[in-house]
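Table 4 source record.
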Amino acid sequence: MSDRTAAAGARVEAYATALLEVARAEGTLGEVEDELFRFARAVEGNDALRLALTDQALPVERRIAVVEELLEAKALRTTVALASLLVGAGRAGDMSAIIERFVEKAAAERAHEVAEVRSAIPLDEGQRRRLAEALSAATGKQVEVVLVVDPKVMGGLVARIGDTVIDGTVSHRLEQLKERT
């Protein structure tokens, strides 16, 4: 591993730890974890947004204003402040890695695995709980569900727990049926 790679990894780890400490101190760890995870996915999935947040030619105040405009009515103040901190510190390019590590650390702190579940529709709390129980039974691990609403999922769910992918989508089932015939 090069010194540059090691430094980048240490930087990601330091920021993730800082996010964890702030969210824990504010007493909003679960909510901040979920909101930051969704924000990072939104940034990853939108080239224009990602470019705006990483464009060093834009004044830092403008980049932070973009974060605030996007999150202000939809997220806790702590989430907005932490996302703004990352952008203001010039870490928007590392945001996904930092937040992914933050989510891992938060889950480890609770002795849980994180399951990224993609669904075409939002799930209510009861559905999330039952899904977490089913995934826990299937994997033998205590699982916490982080939901990503993804219209590309036509029906059913796709769950990723570490390297394990459980594809229960309608399109996957149809593919399996095609292969059998």
